[in-house]
C-alpha cells in the first residue's frame, strides 16, 4: 500500500471494520494498516486534515475493543490509480491511547515482523487462483436487501468481502465495486462459498465476512479483474527487486 507518507514507524496491513466519530457523527470505516503511531482508515466522506476523531476497533485475539482519540494528519480523497494503492481515506495519529492498548499494538506489530510475509489475504481456503490484496468499499445485494461491505482481496475466481450481516454459504448475491482508473463499476453475480466467523485470533486473519465466487462472468469483466491481479503482482515484483538493490 504505497500512497502514504513515511513516518519511520513500522506499519502492518490489518483489515478490520472500525467506528469513527467526529463532530457528533459516527461513521463506519475500515482499518487498512496500523502502527504504534496511528492507523490508516478507508472512510467516506474523508475527514479534513486536522479533524479530531474518536476510534473504536478490535485487535486480533478478541478482547475489549481499542478506544482511542486521534487527529487526521493527512487526507487521501482520490480513488486509487494502481492496484497496490490505498482506497480513499485518511491517516490518523493517536493522541490518546491507553498503555495496555499500546502494548497490544506493539505486540501484533512485532509478531507480524517476525512472521513470514502475510498481508491481507492469509488464512482462507486454497482455490488455485492467485489472490491479491485490494481494499475498497463494495455493495452486496442479496435479494432486494443491499449491504455495504469492503472487498479485502480479489482473484479471477472471486473476492473476499468484509461485511457485518454475513450471508449463508450457498446464497446467491451480486457484488459491485470500483476498480483503479476505471469510471465503470464492476458488478457480478456470485455465490457465497465460505464464511469467516467473527473471531480473529491472529493479525493475518481476515475481518468477519465471506468468500464469494463469481458466476457467469463475461470475458470482458474477467479481463478487468485479471488486469488488477497482474498489475499488483508486477508492482510487488518491482518493489521486491528495488528492496534487494538497497540492501
How does this structure look, described?
The protein has a 6-stranded antiparallel β-barrel. Strands 7-8-9-12-11-10 form a 6-stranded antiparallel beta barrel. The model is unreliable at 116-122 (pLDDT under 50). It has 2 domains: 12-114, predicted glycosyltransferase like domains (Thrombin, subunit H, Beta Barrel); 132-246, Beta Barrel (Thrombin, subunit H), CATH 2.40.10. It is built from 2 helices and 12 strands; from the N terminus they run E-E-E-E-E-E-H-E-E-E-E-E-E-H. It has 247 residues and is an alpha+beta fold. The chain is globular. It has helices at residues 99-114, 219-246, and strands at 12-22, 25-34, 38-42, 52-57, 66-76, 89-96, 132-142, 145-154, 158-162, 172-177, 186-196, 209-214.
Question: What are the defining features of this structure?
Answer:
247 residues; alpha+beta; Thrombin, subunit H; 6-stranded antiparallel beta barrel; 6-stranded antiparallel barrel; 2 helices; 40% strand
Outline of the structure:
This protein is α+β, with helices and mostly antiparallel strands and 247 residues long. It contains two helices and twelve strands.
CATH superfamily of the largest domain: predicted glycosyltransferase like domains
Radius of gyration equals 18 Å
CATH class of the largest domain: Mainly Beta
Domain count, please report it: 2
SSE arrangement, N to C: EEEEEEHEEEEEEH
Tell me what the CATH architecture of the largest domain is.
Beta Barrel
Oligomer: single chain
Instruction: Assess the beta-strand content as a share of residues.
Output: 35-45%
Helical fraction equals 10-25%
Distance between the termini: 21 Å
Overall pLDDT level:
82
Amino acid at each position: 500500500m504505497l500512497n502514504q507518507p513515511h513516518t519511520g514507524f513500522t506499519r502492518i496491513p490489518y483489515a478490520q471494520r472500525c467506528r469513527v466519530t467526529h463532530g457528533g457523527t459516527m461513521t463506519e470505516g475500515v482499518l487498512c494498516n496500523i502502527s504504534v503511531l496511528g492507523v490508516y482508515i478507508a472512510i467516506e466522506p474523508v475527514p479534513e486534515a486536522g479533524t479530531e476523531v474518536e476510534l473504536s476497533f478490535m485487535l486480533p485475539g478478541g478482547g475489549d475493543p481499542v478506544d482511542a482519540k486521534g487527529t487526521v494528519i493527512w487526507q487521501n480523497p482520490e480513488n486509487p490509480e494502481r492496484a497496490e494503492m490505498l482506497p480513499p481515506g485518511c491517516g490518523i495519529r493517536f493522541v490518546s491511547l491507553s498503555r495496555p492498548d499500546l502494548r497490544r499494538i506493539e505486540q501484533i506489530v512485532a509478531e507480524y515482523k517476525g512472521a513470514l510475509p502475510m498481508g491481507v489475504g492469509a488464512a482462507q481456503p486454497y482455490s488455485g487462483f492467485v489472490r491479491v490484496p485490494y481494499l475498497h468499499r463494495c455493495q452486496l445485494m442479496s435479494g432486494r436487501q443491499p449491504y455495504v461491505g469492503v472487498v479485502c482481496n480479489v482473484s479471477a475466481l472471486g473476492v473476499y468481502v468484509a461485511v457485518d450481516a454475513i450471508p449463508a454459504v450457498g446464497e446467491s448475491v451480486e457484488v459491485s465495486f470500483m476498480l483503479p482508473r476505471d469510471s465503470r463499476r464492476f458488478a457480478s453475480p456470485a455465490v457465497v462459498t465460505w464464511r469467516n466467523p467473527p473471531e480473529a485470533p491472529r493479525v493475518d486473519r481476515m475481518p468477519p465476512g465471506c468468500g464469494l465466487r463469481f458466476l457467469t462472468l463475461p470475458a470482458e469483466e474477467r479481463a478487468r479483474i485479471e488486469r488488477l491481479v497482474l498489475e499488483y503482482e508486477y508492482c510487488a515484483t518491482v518493489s521486491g527487486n528495488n528492496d534487494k538493490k538497497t540492501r
